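Hey team,

Filing this mostly as a record. A colleague (T.K.) asked me to run one chain through the structure pipeline before their review meeting, and I want the input and output archived in the tracker in case anyone asks later how it was produced. No errors, nothing strange. Just documentation.

Input sequence:
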Amino acid sequence: MKKKLAVLSGAGISAESGVKTFRDSNGLWENHRIEDVASPEGFRRNPQIVLDFYNARRRQLKEVQPNEAHIILAELQQDYEVHIITQNVDDLHERAGSEKVLHLHGELRKARPVNAERAVIPWESDLNLGDTDEFGIQLRPHIVWFGEMVIAMEEAQQSVQDADLFLVIGTSMQVYPAAGLIHHVPEHCEVYLIDPHLENKYVKPEHFFQHSATEGMREFRELLRKS
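Output structure:
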């Protein structure tokens, strides 16, 4: 029986591949107000701006590749049962070879009708006004916007509760409910943290890697090999 490693990943792991992080220091996202491009109200006000915004994100995703941190996580499947819970909407974990990936905030390469959360379909190209499902309902990005329910939170909590090891990588631990997953770690579970910007309030000093995602994953892998 392989030990179970649950991983919570955030924007920091994809930033090293060139995926732009959630917002700039000025609070804007690609010069847009967050509420204009990441809320149901913004979509109702001006759906074309929202669709254009995510079309640009989707096109950018085709230009980037998984980095070493993604690849090391995939390689750990040889020795561990790895369950990745990600706040990222890219598919870099999957493209690196990770098999069990749960996207809490949706996926860029998927769409869904505006009146349903679960009728999700693959979508690779630009999404435009007039693109509909089989019933003629307008499609929207399969992204969790502000004010909407996070996807599969109960499944994520169960993965953490069943874990022998829990790794947090590349997340500010400020976005809830994802950040609250650390409170579901069982007593026997070892917790590790990789992020260059966080203060360590969560783990033993020897389990805290204040590095980039790639450098931190190298050190985490070495620590696992020695244990």
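Quick notes for T.K.: The chain has a mean pLDDT of 92. The radius of gyration is 18 Å.
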